[in-house]
């Protein structure tokens, strides 16, 4: 057990429930676990960091939080202290088998408020218990964007999301139209939510320390969806086509999607978008209007 540590910005950890560096290494050694690059595993070893994540996520005592990639349980325990329930989705066989015991040993009073789903998050279509209201996760960097978008699409009850991702990915997700890093992740995330950067995380709070910086991204579900008659699938098809050749004008980039350059131009004009514009200048609403007007070019 780690000794209680004071959080300079919060309450003392009276229960000593959270995991410190020694706890993480002891657990990993007992399980024979070595973090793998293949699964993008970097375990958080700093209790103050997970408290900060929970605070930044504004986790409430009535929240049902889903966590993806809980690893050895650092963030899981902090979420359980603050939320009503936590459902963790873990793909790794060894980690999935060990986590319920870690929760029971360190937070026995909340053990019945925890559920584990042993699965690839990209394959999860339902979760046990009440519908989730929040998603808080240290996402594996190699699959962060597809996992995030899958969870937002699959669980519309998720109102608030806070994810820790590679800093470069955080910048892309939160980018506004016209930004150099604005692209497919930016538009698709904005389809679901208002997105913003919510802080940075140093490398020294992880084991092993990654060779990239990390960032927090906050996503608050849109109270009103994007107003469009086009489906999400239709809008995303336009987004994918526009950024597949991002240096080309939309007239050229969307020619395959529309059937020809002339058809793309007609759809763009009907949508009120300049055929000479590029995808990086468009809002999600403009992409939706283009999707609505696909037939204008036929």
Instruction: Identify the strand order in the major beta sheet.
Output: 4-3-2-5-6-9-7
Structural class: alpha/beta
N-end to C-end Cα span? 68 Å
Q: Please state roughly what percent of the residues sit in beta strands, choosing from under 5%, 5-15%, 15-25%, 25-35%, 35-45% or over 45%.
A: 15-25%
Contiguous helical run count? 12
- The low-confidence runs, each spanning 5 or more residues with pLDDT under 50, are 1-15
Number-wise, the strands total: 9
Shape: elongated
| Integer-rounded radius of gyration | 21 Å
Order of helices and strands: HEHEHEHEEHEHHEEEHHHHH
Task: Classify the helix fraction into a percent range.
Answer: 25-40%
Would you tell me the overall average pLDDT?
Answer: 91
């Amino acid at each position: 057990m780690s000794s209680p540590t004071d959080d300079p910005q919060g309450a003392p950890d009276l229960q000593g429930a959270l995991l410190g560096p020694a706890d993480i290494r002891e657990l990993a050694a007992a399980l024979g676990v070595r973090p793998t690059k293949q699964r993008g595993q970097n375990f958080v070893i700093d209790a103050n960091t997970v408290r900060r994540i929970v605070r930044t996520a504004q986790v409430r005592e009535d929240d049902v939080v889903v966590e993806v990639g809980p690893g050895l349980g650092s963030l899981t325990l902090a979420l359980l202290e603050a939320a009503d329930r936590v459902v963790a989705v873990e793909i790794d066989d060894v980690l999935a088998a060990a986590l319920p015991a870690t929760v029971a040993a360190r937070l026995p009073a909340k053990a019945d408020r925890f559920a584990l789903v042993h699965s690839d998050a990209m394959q999860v279509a339902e979760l046990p218990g009440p519908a989730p209201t929040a998603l808080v996760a240290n996402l594996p960097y190699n699959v962060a964007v597809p996992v995030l978008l899958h969870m937002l699409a699959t669980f519309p009850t998720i109102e608030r999301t806070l994810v820790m991702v590679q800093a470069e990915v955080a910048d892309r997700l939160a980018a506004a139209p016209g930004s150099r890093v604005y692209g497919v992740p930016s538009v698709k995330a904005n389809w679901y939510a208002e997105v913003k950067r919510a802080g940075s995380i140093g490398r020294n709070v992880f084991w092993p320390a990654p060779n990239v910086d990390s960032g927090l991204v906050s996503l608050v579900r849109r109270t009103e969806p994007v107003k469009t008659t086009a489906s999400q699938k239709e809008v995303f098809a336009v987004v994918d086509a526009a950024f597949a050749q991002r240096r080309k004008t939309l007239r050229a980039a969307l020619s395959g999607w529309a059937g020809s350059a002339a058809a793309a131009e007609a759809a763009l004009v009907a949508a009120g978008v300049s055929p000479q514009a590029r995808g990086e200048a468009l809002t999600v609403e403009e992409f939706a209007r283009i999707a609505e007007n696909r037939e204008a070019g036929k």
